[in-house]
Amino acid sequence: MQQAIGKYRWTICGLLFFATTVNYLDRQVLSLLQPYLADPKNFNWTNTDYANITAMFQFVYAISMLFAGRIIDKLGTKKGYALAITIWSLAAIIHAFAIPIGQTMSAILGLAGITSFSVSVLGFMFSRAVLAFGEAGNFPAAIKATAEYFPKKERSLATGVFNSGSNVGAILAPLTVPWIKTHWGWQWAFIIMGILGFAWLFLWFFFYERPEKQKRLSSEELQYIQGGEEEIRSEPEQKAEKVSWFKLLGYKQTWSFTVGKFMTDGVWWFFLFWLPAYLNAQYKIVDEAVMLPLAIVYTMAMVGSIAGGWLPARFIKKGLMVYDGRMKAMLLIAFFPLIVLLAQPLGHFSYWVPVLLIGIGVSAHQAWSANIFTTVSDMFPKKAIGSVVGIGGMAGGLGGVVLSKLGGALFDHYKALGHIETGYTIMFAICAVSYLVAWVIMKFLVPKYKPITDL
Question: How high is the pLDDT of residue 67?
Fold first, then answer.
């Protein structure tokens, strides 16, 4: 059947997977270098300094997500995605020049009497802000491309596949960044990762075109992709009708997605940015020694991402409606992060216990993420997908800011008291229960499947 239909859509999915891998490689570099850069021999960062740097990324990412979806809808998937990866790849490279950037910013802010940040913190905050602005375009563009190239019944699987690129990026980073730092210097870790994005650009322009214009796509596969859609053939992207944010905020479906992202995205950000610091703070694991634990955690997350895309399809095949199958899968997934509650109580046996339990938690997050993204393309017309994903992404980024700042404050507080592990226990508890709380609120807002048809 697949041979008769064709499978070029999976080539596009592969490109989305590659881009998401690069996306997470770029954002993961700093967390791996944090123990080295924070050392008193280098930049002497406190946990609050590092929290300010990560919070800057998350805050700008949150605000940018609101506009990124709009920009992607306006420019179209091809141009919008290309612009996003160009910006974030350049931003990755400028991290290597954070000190001269910080010196310039320090001089400017000094004129205004602002002297509360060190030169290195200012330089990295600026670099992370630019990186966040570019990276905000990844998921709105990828979700839009998935909606263009896949029928609804395959979107959760396709989303799970390309979303697993975030885990591959998180796996490759600890396998490469410490080695690059040791042999070539920390600056080259940022430069090399930035260059990878420009390699992706070449492939994107060569392989991607809208399905209606794609010469490599068979007529049978195009018909399969468009089958059952309300809008069989979408209007050219440059003529797409503008959908008001305020109008979108009038729908409970938008709020359901937004609340779900706010409650759970911060959990992923927390583990992504703080897991190397946690292993260093409690178990003194740094540099190359951190490679294996992180590789295992994010390998588990990759399995979760793909399994999360497969699970609702199984329920749907058994006769459940699309939304019911999606929500049933998400409820089941929401119970798995509770196991993270045991990470600290059982951590005295071996650091592998929290590593594996956290691995289950982040695996569940990726399974959740594959499904929550797909609820947007299930319920909204294609012209609004980028904007709705942007609104939810902004909420998710703000959730990340809250958790990052809270974590930094707790860790510095309990470190001063001589038991930083208490700070991590509190943060792990928050992360563990977030998904069940989010699911209850989402189900309350949208108890039954109700697609938007009046935009």
Answer: 83
